[in-house]
């Protein structure tokens, strides 16, 4: 059975750096961390699936946009989660899109995500690192025959060099049809 929701699993050593946790709705939440020199926001998302109507998708992106508007401009914003977005290799989206997407063509959700990234001056870092195909797929169908890259990590262009890697770990036991997506972040977290 499918259920909506977002959440965070936090290592105990990071616990003291948490300044705020907010659940906007069943598709959107964020965690505010005190970095050594800047505030870091981790925004967790669960976008509508491809088959949902445009009104539902528009509402999701409007709420996401409004949420990001509440954060200070100099803070680091990392958007991560189930975007239900297949991203291809369309040239017109290259300012936000890397060369290492699993798919050849973007679906409607992919176009929406790329338009959002361009409008917010963000990069889809999950498409920017060269990995084997098995380390790009983030979702597997129940029959195990279809693998898609629909979970993504985005960051402000200003902070792009702080994301050192994004990849999937297939063997992680997360009791889900989604695989574990891990990003490596170069930054100092203030734990006081």
From TrEMBL:
InterPro entries in the record: Endo/exonu/phosph_ase_sf (IPR036691)
Domain of life: Eukaryota
Name used for this protein in its record: Craniofacial development protein 2
UniProt lineage: Eukaryota, Metazoa, Ecdysozoa, Arthropoda, Hexapoda
